[in-house]
# Entry
Amino acid sequence: MAPRSFRIRLIDIREEIAGIRSLTANATAESFSTSWAMKRAIEHALLIVAEAAKHIPADLKETRPEVPWKKIHGLGNMLRHEYRRIDPDILWSVVTENLDDLDEAIEAMLSHEE
# Structure
């Protein structure tokens, strides 16, 4: 299987963010924390975001210093290895407070690469 280009990884991140937004559009912190399916879907989407982010070249990441790349990678590690310790409130805050900035940065990276 051929390796995926970082551009495709950027698109993957945007698609996962769009999916998270769609899934949580009418959700509240309470409905999120009590929905096993929604939590698992969001965890999986964020895991894909973190994995895709690992494959973005460092020089490109440096153009977007406002994005907490190390925290994104750390979240991926938590989701992979410490999944039992994931607090739904933390996931909800990622969904409600961090995705917009990441999405804007990824959009700008894609525009820059065109």
